[in-house]
Design brief:
Helix content: 25-40%
Strand order of the largest sheet: 11-12-16-15-14-17
Radius of gyration: 23 Å
Distance between the termini: 71 Å
Amino acid sequence: MDIRMPTIPKPAKAKKKQVFLVASGDLRLSANQVCWPAQHAMEEALGEAVREAGYELVRAHPYKPDQKHGFISSQREGMEVFAGIDPDAKLVVAEAVWQYSHHVLAGLLSHRGPILTVANWSGQWPGLVGMLNLNGCLTKAGKPYSTLWSEDFSLPQFRKRLAAWLEDGRVRHSLRHAVPLKKVKIPGGLRRLGEALAQEFRVKKAIMGVFDEGCMGMYNAILPDELLMPLGIYKERLSQSALYYETTQVPDDEAREVYRWLLDRGMKFVTGPNPETDLTEDQILTQCKMYIAALRIADDFGCHAVGIQYQQGLKDLLPASDLVEGMLNNSDRPPVKDRRGERILYEGEPLPHFNEVDECAGLDGLMTYRVHKALGQPVENTLHDVRWGDADRSGTVPDYVWVFLISGSAPPAHFIGGWAGASSERQPAMYFRLGGGTLKGVSKPGEIVWSRIYVDDGSLCMDIGRGGVVELPDEETQRRWNETTPQWPIMHAVTYGVDRDAFMAKHKANHIQVAYAEDARSADAAALAKAALADAMGMRVFLCGTRKDGKPWG
């Protein structure tokens, strides 16, 4: 018998004080090419900081001249790169851009040496978002890692922590702002409400419609069925090809009725003649058809919430889903009837939508909807990217102000002026070849509850806290838009009792869920009721930061 043994790569052992670097990128060539200069500049600065600490930073994969970037741009490429890395070496994952975590996840999970994720503090490209997504993925997978971030890698605090990791392979951050729920007294009425809502889920059960599971490498955004089903929540796995087909079946006149409704409400559309660079009426009408199609499919399957992936499926067939998502998340939205024209679907209420099929956000959104409805508070809620943050350059508020920003799903009920304060601009061509409009607006000042569901140690967890949305001068808002993505809706958020670094150290996702309440007292009650619901569902719950007045939860 001729036995042929497999050839197994044997990477060279790392030299003493040698550290390897990998950079995960986008799946889309256009994004990797446009974003490469920012990544290269970040790596140069990081390399200098490592050299200053007496170590050598070695790139584990080359710049690709034919593709004009140096990112790992697929899962297969990532596996091949890691096959050549000493599995016991110190390893840095450096991110200045949005990245697909599954490009490097396989290699990171089998890597034995210390892992450090690093991001620059910049809003230009979503490097912070990409790093937080990778952190959430590693947490879900049970893989130890350390993490760092900085607007300037020459700052003493960053270099001190980097040196600590280089020496002993760990960086420690304070998590004192996060209080386990067992240390918090929840008023009896709110606790009983949470327990009743948990029982309602278990008895009546709910369905999350998932249009193609898994999006942009977000392993952290997929909830295992065995964690969901005991809660009474089940997935209806839907196909985006069905959504595409249903969109093509919607008559033109029905799409025009939706478009006319939006215009009558005062919404503005920034259109132009060139579909490759401008938002066109054809794109808008197709988005209106997708909105109708999504509601009809959700009704067919009895869904209580839906998530559209879009990014790696519909992007080559249809304009962006963002306008659709924001409409679905609003109570006041264009009415849609069933195919026979007999019933208005989900009349007078939102159909909660979780952007990028982030199932953690879908579960959170469904819970938030029911808690706020029971308390008589605004039910509209959405996820945002934790995109960036900065001091208020206008001096209007003394607080550190986050830029929460998302391409889709933000409801006009959150905006200053509602529908009349909303506009739609074409999505950037490097991500969205077929265009389509956003649902853009500036979030109104008010009290919010923020939260995130994630998986850690095989269990569902929730971090929840309080915050406020502040109103900034137009010039400061525009500066923040210019530093990020000006076509997208923006929220100027302050997280009570949680500063920038504390938030980054604890948050296990690229997304954050937000919902308004009528005042600070109502927001506190909503936060506690949702915490009680999560606890009754069996989640590990942490109340983060403080109330608005600075009083601790415990």
